[in-house]
Amino acid sequence: MFAEISPVSRAVLRRIDGMPEYLYTAKNQAGTDISGTISANSKKEAVEAVHRLKLFPLTVEDDKKGEFAFPTISRRVPDTQIAAAMLQLADLLDNGVPVLQAFQILEKQTPNPRLKSALKNIHDRVAEGESIDTAFGMHSDIFSGLTVSVIRAGSEGAFLEDALRRVGNFLEQQAVLKSKVIGALIYPMLILGVGMLVIFILLLFVVPHFEYIFDFVNDEGTSLPLITQSLIVLREMLLSYGLYVCIAGFVFFYWLQIQLSTVWGMRIKDRLKMRLPLLGTLILESAIARFCRVLGTLMANGVPILQSLEISSLSTGNSILADAVQRSVQNVSSGETLAKPLAESGIFPLPVMAMISIAEESNSLETVLINLADSLESQTARRLEMLMRILGPALLLVMGLLILYIFIAMFMPMIGMWDVF
Fold this sequence. Notes:
single chain, 421 residues, mainly alpha, Receptor-associated Protein, 3 domains, 3 strands, elongated
């Protein structure tokens, strides 16, 4: 959902006769998307005008060209390839290769067509005079807000190579963690899929062969066991309403995705994620670890704490935690410590807050934050591995009980017939 632009901004961006108009989307300091129209003599001037409003431009396109459109669905670029590109770009710049030539080399060696096209476009924009972070920001469908923000800080603070390397290492770590989670989920999901397939086969093709037995029991004046009656009702409901339930489920899922993409939907989703049994703690610790690592890295590279907080709030991946960090920016700017506003949010665990508070007093905040990130990531990985080990047997037990229920329901009437004879 796009935010409304303020009256002051409207006055600044009012149309000037004779100037072309540019459509833009940008993020404000709170991380909210803003869209609007701006008049300028050139695209470069339009980007600079948006920057002067303390907005971070994502796209700026000529209104008359009709280039502004809803993004099309395309295949996502893997984080591993983006990480490799960032690390290689950092190496090229470290070895004294000029920026434009580095992008040309990187473009030729990139196998992904989307990433190759984006790198070429970034090269062209930088050659035209745009800043490197603005050029990266034009491809928000490939490069995350965190990536662009860290590159921007590195460009402004004269440590671009280190910023690119930090981004690359961070993306690599995230990709490794994601691959571990996916690998750990393969076995449970395989059990779930096979179990559901077996259940559907039993209900649709095996249970009908026992209907003559059920009819015989009813004809003899004996009522079917309750478990068998429930199985018959379950099968009839599946045949009568299964298709409608699937269609309704797809429609509901599509509607839910739209709602969760809004600002309020993201907040509700993130709040519910943190309250999930077992998983909620893992999600929160992972978000705090990302925040600590990015904040500590930026401060270690000399980025001012206020700017570091602004950038690191984008790294959390959780709007509730990002709001707490944004509120801390206001308090820190007024002279308060960082630990106080973070503790008042009630989100950060007490041990984390204690370490941050002590680190501020000893003037070693950046080192402690990075150590905290290492500790939280290791703890999260151990808990996740333990959870995955429990999930597989648990799903196997549930599927086994469901299949056992179906077999008992099918054979109970036969046992009753043997007792009669």
